[in-house]
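Hey, resending since the last one bounced:
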Amino acid sequence: MSMGEAERVTPAAVLSVSEVHDALGQALAVAGLERLWVTGVVNGLRRGRRSTSWGLVEYEPDATTVRAMLSIGAFNAQMAQLDATLAATEVELCDGIEVALWGRLDPNPSYGRLRLLAEGVDPRATVGAAVLARERLVAELEMSGELVAQRCLALPDVIRRVGLISSASAAGRSDVFE
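The structure tokens again:
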């Protein structure tokens, strides 16, 4: 908008920040977008004392260029439910995993950005994406020869140490330590 156009704006057309957020909330309600499913790739997961936040990213077909991003938040009670749902399918919420989330779009004026407050997760979408990612990794390891090289390693008759690489909340870790 040029300076001349800005001067022609009437004071009635000027909104406060809270009025903009109220209008956005009303527009979401009219459009039927208050609660919805959204799918994307987890990016920047940060677990805090009271809540967890991350971005949900959609990539361009080149799989590296970000097409769109939505801020996601989950309070501890909802996060515990999300984690439990995913743990039942042996999947952990982490950066890089594709998820389908159910929640409420929140144009919270004190937060300052539109975000989705996550209330549920569809593990079928997550598990399917994880299976595809595993298949791609195995194919890559086979093509590079690393998988064959690993198979050729001789194991000792008596195994004295086993290493486990895992996050503290992974389902596989609890299988080993219980």
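The mean pLDDT is 84.

Sorry for the duplicate.
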